[in-house]
Amino acid sequence: MSDAPPPIRVLVCDDQELVRTGYVTIFSAQPDLEVVGEAENGHAAVEAARQLRPDVVVMDIRMPLLDGIEATRRLAGPDVEAPPKVLVVTTFNVDAYVYEAFRAGASGFLLKDSPPVELVSGIRTVARGEALLAPAVTRHLIGHFAERLRPADTSRPARDEVVSALTVRELEALRLIAEGLSNAEIAAAMFITPETVKTYVSRILTKLDLRDRVQAVVLAYRIGLVSGTS
């Protein structure tokens, strides 16, 4: 009798049939992934996700009828119970929308031209409950929109509350996360093990009542903990 966990159920949402077909082919070849459906626009994505209950939704941003941002908000927004993980796929020429996708509840993003191995790894990462933030892309996107992020957001703790809630080391880890460093890079910078970094990240999310690493990055910029020009 096999003790293997059930496959990760994936819903593919993109308005281009060729892209959807490519994703389905790539994902279906993985023994731990199961493509349970496809959607060609935001409305179809929301309906399919609610019916099929996937673990991960691979979501394009630009789609007709309802874009990927609003579809993500309806599926994984802060008021949604038991939301699926949403992995946004995008390109740099539409990066103005990525920050809004994060606020809508996305668990991570990748570039559309990412190699298949990265797409598959991305699904596994968000399915485990970890946010997917490619460091180089994070530096570009979040740094570029730092000024937009800076105004206070009453839905999140104020800077003083964040500082008082975290230890000095946790606060340092949050800054490095927001600067786009990977766990390995944070470990090297703080002279700790990657396992300790994971512990810090978990504590940060719990103490600040954040869903995932993406929300931690957005929060750090919104309260001015880091600057896109630093």
From TrEMBL:
Pfam families membership: GerE (PF00196), Response_reg (PF00072)
InterPro entries registered for this protein in UniProt: CheY-like_superfamily, NreC/VraR/RcsB-like_REC, Sig_transdc_resp-reg_C-effctor, Sig_transdc_resp-reg_receiver, Tscrpt_reg_LuxR_C, WalR-like
Protein name, UniProt field: Response regulator transcription factor
PROSITE patterns given in the database record: HTH_LUXR_1, HTH_LUXR_2, RESPONSE_REGULATORY
Domain Response regulatory: 9-127
Lineage start: Bacteria, Bacillati, Actinomycetota, Actinomycetes, Kitasatosporales
Keyword entries, A-Z: DNA-binding, Phosphoprotein, Transcription, Transcription regulation
GO BP, sorted A to Z: phosphorelay signal transduction system; regulation of DNA-templated transcription
Source species of the chain: Streptomyces adustus
Segments crossing the lipid bilayer: none
